[in-house]
Specification:
The chain is α/β, with parallel strands linked by helices. Helices cover 36% and strands 19% of the residues. It contains ten helices and nine strands. The strands form two sheets. The chain has a six-stranded parallel β-sheet with strand order 2-1-3-4-8-9, sandwiched between helices. Pfam families: Abhydrolase_6.
């Protein structure tokens, strides 16, 4: 009997595992094995190493699903031997040696750039790092558009910042070169220019790309469509 594939949902910047909640619940209800590990958002290499370690501790095949910055994380972490595929959701499909800033820099700025806050955080034995977060008052319209108003308020004040270092760090690998991959474009995304998503997916030669008239947190607004897409990717793997 074939081993069951575990779906590992990887959240992005300015969010945590709760951003995946509607998709997580539906996948669990449909009998899938699911994990939603926390990502520290401190460095691309460190975050990817952690997600890779999570995958490697799973007994059996793993499908990595990454949202936004989580797409960059699975690009690097996906080289783990038991990772059998990647699903990008409004995500960064980086090339090896490329940073988020470099990929995003080739396209007009999204509304996010004008609504960021920068704050120092302590680093042991070195210069202070810089945390990047979204202005709380702008969060519902820029990052959480389409999400229930009360939920958006909670997400705004509980967001997990992204280290500026992670934004500029080059990807150490591009797992899509060796692993099958699929992608979802959020056509109404105000956080990432949708053309960043389209360009990365086309360059990576993804097996299938689905466009949704959806905002950045498409997991919150279109969970049924995402679950169907993830299940289609699993079926494609055989």
């Amino acid at each position: 009997m074939l081993q069951k594939t575990t779906i590992v949902l990887v959240h992005g910047a300015f969010a945590d595992g709760a951003s995946w909640a509607p998709v997580t619940l539906r996948l669990l209800e449909r009998g899938h094995d699911v994990l939603v590990p926390p990502v520290a958002n401190r460095s691309l290499s460190g975050d990817a190493a952690y997600i890779r370690s999570v995958a490697e501790q799973i007994d059996g095949p793993v499908l990595l699903v990454g949202h936004s910055y989580g797409g960059a994380v699975i690009t690097v972490a996906g080289v783990a031997e038991n990772v059998v595929g990647l699903v990008y959701v409004s995500g960064y499909a980086l090339e090896e040696g490329e940073s988020l800033g470099q990929l995003q820099g080739g396209f007009p700025d999204s509304e996010l750039a004008a609504n960021l806050v920068y704050a120092p955080y302590p680093v042991d034995g070195g210069e202070p790092g810089t945390d990047v977060s979204v202005k709380i008052e702008a969060f519902p319209s820029v990052f959480a558009e389409g999400v229930d108003e009360d939920t958006a308020k909670v997400f705004a004040v509980s967001q997990r910042p992204l280290s500026a270092f992670a934004f500029g760090e080059p990807a150490g690998a591009a797992a899509w070169r060796e692993k099958p991959a699929w992608g979802v474009v959020s056509a109404a995304d105000k956080t990432i220019n949708p053309d960043v998503e389209r360009f990365g997916y086309k360059r990576a030669g993804l097996r299938e790309v689905m466009e949704l008239d959806a905002p950045h947190l498409v997991m919150q607004t279109h969970p049924a469509e995402l679950v169907a897409f993830i299940e289609a990717a699993l079926a494609d793997l055989g």
